[in-house]
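In response to a reviewer's request, we include the raw inputs and outputs for one of the modeled complexes. The three entities were modeled together in a single run.
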Amino acid sequence: MSEGVRLLKYNEILPGGIIDEPGSSLKYKTGSWRALRPVIDQEKCVRCRLCWIYCPDAAILEVDEEYVTKKGRRYKISYKVNYDYCKGCGVCAQECPVNAIEMVPEPIGGEEQ
Amino acid sequence: MAVRLKPPAKGEPYKSLFQIPREEWFVSGHRLCAGCPVGTTMRLLTKVIGPNTIIVNATGCLEVASTPYPYTAWRHPWLHLAFENTAAAASGIEAALKVLKAKGVLDKDVKVVAIGGDGGTVDIGLQALSGMLERGHKVMYVLYDNEAYMNTGIQRSGATPYGAWTTTTPAGKKWRGEWRPKKDIDAIVAAHRIPYVATANPAFPLDMANKFKKAYELTDEGPTFVHVLIPCVPGWRIKDNMGITVARLAVETGVWILYEIDHGVFRVTFPVKRRKPVIEYLKLQGRFRHLTPEEIEKIQEMVDKQVEEVNKLVGKEVIGPVEK
Amino acid sequence: MTLAAKEELRVEYKKPRPLSTNSAVAHAVKDLDVDVVAAYPITPQTTVVEKISEFIANGELEAEMIHVESEHSALSATIAASLTGARAFTATASQGLELMHEILHIASGLRAPIVMSVAMRALSAPISIWNDHSDVMNARDTGWVIMFVSSAQEAYDTVIQAYRIAEDRDVLLPVMVAYDGYVMSHTMEPVVTEDRDSVLAYAPKRPFPYKLDPDKPVTIGVIADPDWYYEIKYQIVDAMRRVPQKLEEADREFGKRFGRSYGVVECYLCEDAKSLIVAASSYAATLKAVLPRAWERGLKVGLLRLRLYRPFPEEYILRHIEDKDSILVIDRAISYGAPYQGPLANEFAGLLLKHDIKANLVSVVAGIGQRRMVDEDFMKLAEIAWEARISKKPETIFYGVRA
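The model returned the following structure tokens for the whole complex.
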């Protein structure tokens, strides 16, 4: 049922249960669902954007962080996993054209790395 | 190209995935299954249609997973009424916007996008859909098709393809999965002579984005319809990382042909030179696991026939033969 | 007396015109400047929508008419339009009301400020196009405000009052205005209609406060798990409580501006009456003509005309029944297998029990499928009501059936 949300009285709820806070689902962290987590190898990643496009949960973030590979290739953006929401489905790893994403087991107890 | 590009102007197509805006309009925290391509599709759809849109959604996986009180994954104004009346609700909103604008109450142009699953569109929602199309409401209807009533636990719908296991067409001694072909909803919709009908697939995001954009913009003229194939992790019995791969194989085998009917003109938007044999698509899905080689051959023949019909319609071989 | 006071007292003569109740409803819709009408034809409602179409076609009403393909879609489109901020209306009867049944609950659940007129008609099977109250009675627990009207004029006036109540921020409930199909829907009566400016001054448009708008996005129509569903439904219980008072105020204000008012319930020949008949819509109108003759014969039987039905106007009814020896409730619908087999009878029984009222209750079911009821029959019912003061009649009387 409703974890961690205060159970409101009838007159504290908007008529008909209307939600007037767009995107309030961000308060619900689906990261606890996963058994595997994706790890992006910034060296291999060619910044094709596909993982960001495909992720059903918007759990791959495209950030304006510069990255220079060991071979000197310069990228203006990088892709980072938002582990708060990632459900560990593995679509990103499956679709990555250069195999830059590896699915590794979630640590027991779900501790953040 | 690791550079963000400007979105295309009205009437112009997306040329690169980097023209898709970064801002999320279908946000994280929804309860769709891990790996559900509906999430992929809705993220893209909501980015393409832009904020000046009201969304109506049928009862189903998407609706239930995206709006459990008090959480909503939507940043658009969004309405859910019931299962079979999405098109009727969309008609009501469109009419309201039209008259409010005419009476000077509303000073901006707001569009309406209706979203329904195959159950809520092809079966129980067909009446309302037909009415909306026939009356010419300026609404874009997106059908996300996972080929069964998935939200209630994988029961067959009119969109369930031949041979598929579902809980109401199981494979046993007497039944061998669904024995009827998939309802051709696109032909039914096209028969209403609306400005735009298209099929789309999340494994082809640029093609899908362009279809969404065209369908959205052509609501200036009348109703439009985009039919998206959505592999379902629990319902098709596929691994949770395989949704996009399976969707891609549907196109590569000719099972799912990417086309559009733009003002009555039929065009295949993704030609396939050499088709993969259909077994490549079927073997990844547990819902087809029971099929015998003869049954798979029958399905191959059905796909061949479908491809032949499309090639005839276009006047040339846009979908090629099976590469052995 | 000041000139202003003289102006207030002056009752302006307004020339009535001959309108059927259906036409009167259509005129109200026009004078209210309704924005969206979505309706599907069904006997005996059809001429409501035909008249509205005429008004739109002639440019007398600027509205979108959605020629929906079923009543289910009609109500769906009406709700959606109202949640987008438009003033929306629909009309139906019988099978149409049944077809939209699941959506009735959604209308109240989502607090849509809409008005629907119902030309009451019997329910299939067997199919009947004739009048009784089974369609509306079947909708009594759907969370709608329900009002019965007894004349074409009252229908016109009540549709106007209905929008004022429905759109009230403290109410936000859908309102059903019900009248007898055929008997009223297709019968001409003198009706005074008002000008649009006065009507809109009385019932100004108050769009849904959380309407669908890209500038302020809302999510409407959530799924509510067991932690939330109860409270959201309880909101309707709470809103209903305010309705009788709101109707009284609205009706009083209507009287001030237009010179006509009806009350929440009406008690006719009530004082000094020892017995009461409870009736609604056209039967109440006929009883007003018959009961004076009953009094001439020594039967002191009054009429409690039910106007507001949902919420049940307990307080207002109580004012009239506490000193009566018998109450005869006419039901025009059958509640099969219920303790009293008429829905109103069961509700009055509850009322009597709740407030320890000693009157003998008589449950009469009559006029099913528009079974003929003429003056003599109503006189007979007055006799039964009078007899019931001393001899109890515990079983429902199915008046007029060949059994």
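As requested, we also summarize the result in words. Chain C has 14 helices and 16 strands. The mean pLDDT of chain C is 96.
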